[in-house]
Amino acid sequence: MRKKAIILLSGGLDSTTVMAIAKHEGFELYSMSFFYGQRHSYELNAAKNVAEVFKVKKHLVINIDLNKIGGSALTDDIQVPKARSLNSIKKGIPITYVPARNTIFLAHALAWSEVIKSFDIFIGVNAIDFSGYPDCRPEYISAFEHMANLATKTGVEGKIRIKIQTPLIKMTKSQIINKGIELGVDYSLTHSCYDPDKGGFACGLCDSCLLRKKGFEEAGFTDPAKYSNTA
To answer: How much is the average pLDDT of 183-211?
Structure first.
């Protein structure tokens, strides 16, 4: 019987690559996405399409209203930064950081893992080409994994250790893209933009779009994302 893996799937480039890696490693795939009041909820359409292409066993969309908490340009009435230099993107924690988002997401995946008896949770965090988010660092992942094995029936009974899998954490965006291409990922399915227009076209100027475009350029491939005319 194949081992089960839960993949936190945003519908973006990184999480889709993680899905391909988990599939390549022989896992039976389960995916979890979140509608949390994000302005770029168009990404959920991408997540659904990715889940269908990868033929996941089950795809869950969890609703969490983080608008009530706010504090982020993705969930509050705060302008998304545009056209920042790459040096600026890598300095400090930007306003697009959603307070405790990965902790909230991983906690839900952890709960599901106990129910379906999956002991591998995959998340597409990256500590190199990233926007300074504190919950993308190796020390955060290590701490959460330690907590997961203290806070669950599975962990306490010591039958199998829960593992938070982060295959992209030490890869640049171009390396991630090359890995995905190697595994046959169709990146036209993915959506990365923080501030798409009503038609779902990417702005081309937010931090996420700029890092994506930089990655494709360095990898030597054409970015298949659909950008707005103003990008």
So the answer is: 96
Number of neighbours of residue 210 by Cβ within 10 angstroms: 20
- Yes or no: say if 148 and 162 are a contact pair by the CB < 8 Å rule: yes
Phi, psi values for residue 111, rounded to 5°: -60, -45
Whole-model pTM? Answer: 0.96
pLDDT tens digit string along 118-129? 999 999 999 876
Query: Phi and psi for 96 in degrees, rounded to 5?
Result: -80, -5
Domains, the chain, ranges and CATH? 4-219 (3.40.50.620)
Amino acid letter for position 20? A
What is the distance, to the nearest Å, from the Cα of residue 136 to the centroid of all Cα atoms in its chain? Answer: 10
Helices (H), 76-172: 86-89, 101-116, 138-151, 153-157
